[in-house]
């Protein structure tokens, strides 16, 4: 059976699938791919189940060697992928032979690349998922980020799909400034009108303190009403925007804690989380309000 | 209070059962969780029960919010009619004081008690597990006697061993994993609150009660060894 050997690891490369569901009631974060849309596209190109485990590379890519003939696809951030020194296209199924080496020359757009291999990365699942949760050292490859020398098994390929390349219109543009749609949160009324205005009409910059747990933003402080900073600890969902007392918003992402005690001003809609996951420190976010009713009308008009 | 349905983005709904921390409100949350789990709604991916809310996570590609909301309302029409099994008391052995509980004497002094009184009070009340969160396996407990309430440490410790039992204000709790923290540490349990390799993976569920009991060093070591071997039988009794 084919395996993947890690020669260099890149900045932060982990095994991720769609995430570990069913245990949030015990305080277990979901984890999983930050950009689930790109994970699913990568799997689609190699004929996997859309939720199979891939490698998620952050900012800089790993150098990998394949021990058997297989085919791979890279989606998400464009890190200028090369196979044996020859450039290969993004969002496209590529054949690899035994001994082939995949490397990346540098980040050209986005933040996180997804590397899918036919058959998926078949590290043992933990609690129903192969996703790595770094803080508790669970799942993925020995519960940690990949390191040189690691060797991971690949599953049995399901067969080559007809689709060789993702049509370009389907891939969002990873810009340094994005407008992100949000739905008003359960504690939007905890904020001053001026605070809500700041949130919806000024720019927020992604700070360096952003990681798989959450994106910490910095911009005009969002003022709470007097004494209305904290709530009784309650659930947090993917894309929840919470605002601690100092007034700077945090967007909760894949490794988010399951519950929190800060006022939840809004939630990023599922479709726009893929854009956030591809943003880097220094990038700029503008929030734009939408509603479930509006979103639903849009979906219906496609049908 | 009437239940409130609040969207949390386009992939989760919150059912809010009240605005306070109380056993009654939390009971409604747990009843709704049981009822909705039984309903097995296609497209629902997970539940997060907390003190006063139940978060229902769903995949908007699989179920529209209108249909989900209808189903939630129908299932939650009469929470009083939903029956829960009798709660379980989980008995938790604790080695109090010494190296395992370096702040036991501080808690005693703060409350003008003898150290043994702190232990007696801490082991005398059953604590309800309102919810789990913060880190895997961490329980938010209610029911600690206010006579041993003690503010957090001013400077948090960088490393607190897993199993440490502490007090923060009017709350008591157990650290499931080694982590930094500012709780006053009064003891340590040899039990593992979270073990991904065992079934079930978590020692406690929301709705359980915890009853602490004092063990000596020998008993602590004996239980710790059995836990490591996977042969320890956790003591669970029905709540009377």
Order of helices and strands of chain B: EEHEEHEHHEEEEEEEEHE
Biggest beta sheet attributes of chain B? 8 strands, mixed
Strand content of chain B: 25-35%
- The number of helical elements of chain A comes to 4
Strand fraction of chain A equals 25-35%
Assign a percent range to the helix content of chain A: 10-25%
**Helical coverage of chain B, percent range:** 10-25%
Measured distance between first and last alpha carbons of chain A: 43 Å
Low-confidence stretches of chain A: none
* Intertermini distance of chain B: 28 Å
Describe the structure.
- The complex is a heterodimer of chains A (303) and B (240).
- With 303 residues, chain A is mainly β.
- Helices cover 13% and strands 33% of the residues of chain A.
- The longest helix of chain A is centred in the last third of the chain and has 11 residues.
- Chain A is elongated, with a radius of gyration of 20 Å.
- The model of chain A has no long low-confidence stretch (mean pLDDT 95).
- With 240 residues, chain B is of the alpha+beta class.
- Helices cover 23% and strands 30% of the residues of chain B.
- Chain B has 5 helices and 14 strands.
- In chain B, strands 5, 6, 7, 9, 10, 12, 13 and 14 form an 8-stranded mixed sheet that branches. In chain B, strands 1-2-4-3 form a 4-stranded antiparallel sheet. In chain B, strands 8-11 form a two-stranded antiparallel sheet.
- In chain B, a hairpin with a 2-residue loop joins strand 9 and strand 10.
- In chain B, helix 3 packs across helix 4.
- Chain B is elongated.
Q: What's a quick, concise take on this entry?
A:
Chain A is mainly β. Chain A has helices at residues 36-45, 193-201, 270-277, 292-302, and strands at 3-8, 12-16, 54-58, 63-66, 70-78, 81-83, 86-87, 94-96, 101-104, 109-117, 151-153, 177-184, 204-206, 214-219, 230-235, 240-243, 250-252, 259-268, 284-290. The longest helix of chain A is centred in the last third of the chain and has 11 residues, at 292-302.
């Amino acid at each position: 059976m084919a395996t993947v050997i890690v020669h260099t690891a890149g900045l932060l490369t982990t095994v991720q699938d769609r995430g570990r569901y069913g245990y949030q009631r015990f305080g277990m974060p979901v984890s999983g791919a930050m950009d689930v849309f790109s994970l699913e596209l990568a799997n689609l190109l190699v004929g996997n189940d859309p939720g199979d485990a891939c490698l998620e590379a952050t900012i800089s890519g790993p150098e990998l060697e394949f021990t058997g003939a297989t085919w791979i696809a890279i989606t998400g951030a464009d890190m200028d992928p090369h196979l044996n020194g020859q450039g290969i296209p993004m969002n496209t199924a590529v054949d690899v032979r035994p001994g082939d080496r995949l490397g990346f020359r540098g980040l050209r757009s986005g933040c996180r690349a997804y590397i899918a291999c036919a058959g998926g990365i078949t590290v043992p699942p933990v609690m129903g998922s192969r996703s790595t949760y770094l803080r508790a050292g669970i799942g993925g490859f020995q519960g940690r980020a990949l390191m040189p020398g690691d060797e991971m098994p690949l599953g049995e390929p399901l067969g080559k799909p007809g689709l060789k390349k993702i049509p370009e219109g389907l891939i969002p543009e990873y810009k340094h400034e994005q407008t992100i749609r949000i739905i008003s949160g359960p504690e939007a009324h905890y904020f001053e009108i001026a605070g809500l205005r700041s949130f919806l009409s000024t720019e927020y910059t992604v700070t360096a303190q952003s990681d798989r747990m959450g994106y910490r933003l910095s911009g005009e402080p969002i003022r709470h009403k007097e004494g209305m900073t904290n709530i009784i600890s309650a659930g947090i969902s993917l894309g929840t925007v919470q605002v601690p007392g100092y007034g700077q918003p945090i967007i909760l992402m894949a490794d988010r804690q399951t519950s929190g005690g800060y006022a939840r001003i809004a939630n990023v809609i599922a479709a726009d989380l893929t854009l956030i996951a591809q943003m880097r420190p220094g990038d700029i976010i503008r929030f734009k309000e939408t509603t479930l009713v509006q979103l639903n009308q849009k979906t219906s008009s496609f049908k | 209070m009437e239940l409130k349905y609040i969207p949390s983005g386009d992939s989760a709904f919150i059912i809010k059962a009240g605005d306070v921390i109380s056993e009654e409100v939390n009971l409604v949350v747990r009843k709704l969780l049981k009822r909705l789990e039984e309903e097995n709604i296609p497209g629902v991916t997970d539940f997060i029960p907390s003190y006063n809310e139940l978060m229902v996570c769903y995949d908007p590609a699989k179920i529209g919010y209108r249909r989900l909301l209808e189903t939630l309302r129908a299932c939650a029409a009469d929470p009083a009619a939903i029956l829960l099994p009798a709660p379980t008391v989980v008995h938790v052995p604790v080695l109090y004081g010494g190296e395992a509980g370096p702040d036991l004497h501080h808690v005693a002094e703060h409350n003008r008690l003898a150290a043994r009184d702190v232990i007696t009070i801490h082991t005398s009340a059953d604590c309800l597990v309102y919810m789990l969160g913060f880190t895997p396996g961490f329980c938010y407990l209610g029911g600690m006697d206010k006579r041993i309430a003690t503010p957090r440490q001013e400077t948090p410790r960088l490393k607190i061993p897993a199993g440490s039992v502490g007090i923060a204000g009017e709350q008591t709790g157990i650290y499931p994993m080694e982590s930094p923290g500012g709780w006053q540490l009064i003891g340590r349990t040899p039990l593992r609150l979270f073990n991904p390799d065992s079934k079930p993976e978590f020692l406690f569920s929301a709705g359980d009660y915890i009853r602490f009991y004092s063990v000596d060093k020998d008993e602590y070591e004996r239980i710790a060894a059995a836990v490591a071997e996977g042969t320890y039988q956790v003591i669970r009794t029905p709540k009377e």
